[in-house]
Specification:
CATH superfamily of the largest domain: Histidine kinase-like ATPase, C-terminal domain
Structural class: alpha+beta
Oligomer: single chain
Strand order of the largest sheet: 2-4-5-7-6
Number of domains: 2
Number of strands: 7
Largest sheet: 5 strands, mixed
CATH architecture of the largest domain: 2-Layer Sandwich
Length: 219
């Protein structure tokens, strides 16, 4: 079933991308270039949504993760911080990273861990206040690595905190849609860390920002 869903979602996406590339090869006016830029951005967001749907479906299937290996979790975190640098700069936000304890590898699936970290960091930037700071902490304890992602945003309403990791749920106002997205990012984060034998939790007070903690066992 997942293969069918993937095919049905990706086929029209590939067709649209081919058409977009064809347009890129043709000269156009300033208005045409603006339209191309909008098209590229829209296709990128659509592709991200499709990938999130497929990944969440795969993680929800109950199958064990791919063969695991020793993962340099600090390197994974720093790579994702660098990847979000441009987005943070565009939002006039700052990302601070701190590491506590001697680094040790996590036994895991590196691409999945990278995806989970990316969602947590992206979430912090999207819900942060303008000019705010995202604080990333990584602590290596005797048995596990704990990742902390904190922001200076509006915080999460108490009534929403028990549902924040549910698939397709968003704490942001559904009518204003101030923050877009499918509401799958945190659901994927939970699936990934629980699949590694760890977990994820949130602490938040309205008006005081949010702190997400995710942990996974060390090798």
């Amino acid at each position: 079933m997942l293969a069918i869903i993937s095919h049905e979602l990706r086929t029209p996406m590939c067709t649209a991308e081919l058409a977009a590339r064809q347009l890129e090869s043709e000269p156009c006016s300033v208005e045409g270039e603006t339209a191309r830029r909008i098209l590229r951005g829209s296709l990128a967001r659509l592709d991200e949504a499709i990938q999130a749907i497929i990944l969440h479906a795969r993680l929800s299937g109950g199958k064990p993760l791919s063969p695991l290996a020793d993962v340099d979790f600090e390197e994974v975190v720093r790579e994702q911080v660098r990847a979000q640098g441009a987005a943070a700069a565009a939002l006039e936000q700052e990302i601070k990273v701190s590491v506590t304890g001697p680094a040790r590898p996590v036994r895991g699936d590196r691409p999945l861990l990278a995806t989970a970290v990316r969602h947590l960091l992206s979430n912090a930037l999207r819900f942060n206040r303008p000019g705010g700071r995202a604080r990333i902490g990584l602590e290596f304890r005797p048995q596990e690595a704990t990742l902390t992602v904190a922001d200076d945003g509006e915080g999460i309403p108490v009534c929403a905190q028990s549902r924040i990791f549910d698939p397709y749920y968003q704490a942001a106002d559904y009518l204003t849609r101030r923050v877009g997205g499918l509401g799958l990012g945190l659901a994927i984060v939970r699936r990934v860390f629980e699949g590694h034998g760890g977990g994820v939790a949130v602490e938040s007070k309205p008006g005081e920002g949010s702190v997400f903690r995710a942990w996974a066992p060390l090798s």
